[in-house]
């Protein structure tokens, strides 16, 4: 069973205070002062993390993201293998987003969110430490075909990843108090463990959601082109349904194997949602949307139902989009459907059992 962190009154007060100060560019956001109700998490010295990564050696470098460079580290005191994310102070992501990450990761706890271990804020250094996931991101497995180490994902693995991602958003929207809008959902922010369970990370753009009678919060328009909900892009008014739209784009990527935006394709196919919307108007053409790498190995009914979920998530009007709890229920059902009798079930990746999705859904994964 997942352990939902719903937040004590002091934590909620700290979150609201922190978010307010962040919105006003206040550098004195609470960090680890228990007397003031601030959030507590483990702090690392720069020396400990320098030792863990062999002085941030290129040999330990595993990824370069928008936040900075990610290293594989070995904490000498415990022998624990961790991911050490070193903020690039000259990049587009700054100290403010570092504070947001620490704030969110300290209060949010769910099997499909990255396990946050601690941070370093020594001098000008800003470093995050979280669990190390050797399989990397969904983006690498779905779109990086240059590596033979990443075989094509089969249908059931894709649905398992979709279910885990949806469950994480459901927790943030419905279980966390106050609710949290993730605001940056995309395949590169979905990491995979050895059993292909999805774990969201990079909470630098996350925002505390509306409470009480409020339906939205005002926010500067931030995110990644191709995943931003149209109403948020037009007005700057942010709701939980913006995440639902982004999830619809990611689910469409899982089904088609295409990127949300791909300038290497013909002009009419460069924007995935626009291209797919034209085809989704004719249900008989749904099979044209399937990733060729699936080689037709998916249940026809489940595929059509997935397209229906995608269409609802991508509704232009935010009020017409489903809640993430409804999306989770739908994907659990889809995941339980077997391949048609006349289609052989493809082999699953190492560590993935054919009934993992159904078991995972029953246990809140």
Automatic annotation (TrEMBL):
Gene3D superfamilies attached to this UniProt entry: Phosphorylase Kinase, domain 1, Transferase(Phosphotransferase) domain 1
Region of interest (Disordered), ranges: 17-37, 340-365
All copies of domain Protein kinase, residue ranges: 56-336
Membrane-topology annotation of the record: Lipid-anchor
Keyword Metal-binding assigned: no
Statement: the UniProt record of this protein carries the keyword Manganese: no
An example Gene Ontology CC term for this record: plasma membrane
PROSITE patterns, per database record: PROTEIN_KINASE_DOM (PS50011)
GO molecular function terms noted in the UniProt entry: ATP binding; protein kinase activity; protein serine/threonine kinase activity
UniProt keyword list: ATP-binding, Cell membrane, Kinase, Lipoprotein, Membrane, Nucleotide-binding, Serine/threonine-protein kinase, Transferase
Cell compartment(s), UniProt: Cell membrane
Similarity comment text for this entry: Belongs to the protein kinase superfamily. Ser/Thr protein kinase family.
PANTHER family: OS07G0668900 PROTEIN, SERINE_THREONINE-PROTEIN KINASE PBL27
The protein, known as: Probable serine/threonine-protein kinase PBL26
Organismal lineage: Eukaryota, Viridiplantae, Streptophyta, Embryophyta, Tracheophyta
Name of the coding gene: LOC110775505
């Amino acid at each position: 069973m997942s352990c939902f962190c719903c937040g004590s009154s002091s934590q909620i007060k700290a979150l609201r205070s922190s978010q307010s100060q962040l919105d006003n560019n206040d550098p004195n956001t609470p960090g680890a002062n228990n007397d003031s109700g601030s959030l507590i998490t483990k702090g690392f010295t720069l020396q400990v993390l320098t030792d863990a990564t062999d002085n941030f050696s290129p040999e330990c470098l595993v990824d370069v993201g928008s936040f900075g460079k990610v290293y594989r580290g070995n904490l000498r005191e415990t022998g624990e293998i961790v991911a050490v994310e070193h903020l690039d102070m000259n990049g587009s992501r700054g100290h403010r987003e570092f504070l947001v990450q620490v704030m969110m990761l300290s209060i949010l706890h769910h099997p499909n969110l990255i396990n946050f271990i601690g941070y370093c804020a020594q001098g000008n250094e800003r470093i995050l430490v979280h669990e190390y996931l050797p399989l990397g991101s969904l983006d690498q497995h779905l779109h990086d075909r240059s590596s033979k180490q990443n075989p094509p994902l089969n249908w059931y693995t894709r649905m398992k990843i979709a279910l885990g991602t949806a469950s994480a958003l459901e927790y943030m929207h419905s279980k966390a108090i106050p609710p949290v809008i993730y605001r940056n959902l995309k395949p590169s922010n979905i990491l995979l463990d050895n059993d292909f369970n999805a774990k969201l990370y990079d909470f630098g753009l996350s925002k505390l959601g509306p409470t009480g009678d409020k339906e939205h919060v005002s926010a500067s328009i931030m995110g990644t082109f191709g995943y931003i909900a149209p109403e948020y892009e037009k007005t700057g008014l942010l709701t939980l349904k913006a995440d639902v739209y982004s999830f619809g784009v990611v689910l469409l990527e899982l089904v088609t194997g295409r990127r949300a935006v791909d300038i290497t394709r013909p002009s009419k196919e460069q924007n995935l949602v626009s291209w797919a919307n034209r085809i989704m108007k004719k249900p008989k053409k749904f099979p044209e949307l399937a990733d060729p790498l699936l080689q037709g190995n998916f249940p026809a009914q489940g595929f059509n139902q997935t397209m229906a979920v995608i269409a609802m998530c991508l509704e232009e009007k935010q009020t017409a989009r489903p809640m993430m709890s409804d999306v989770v229920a739908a994907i659990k059902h889809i995941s339980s459907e077997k391949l048609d009798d006349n289609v052989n079930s493809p082999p699953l990746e190492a560590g993935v059992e054919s009934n993992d999705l159904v078991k995972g859904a029953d246990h809140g994964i």
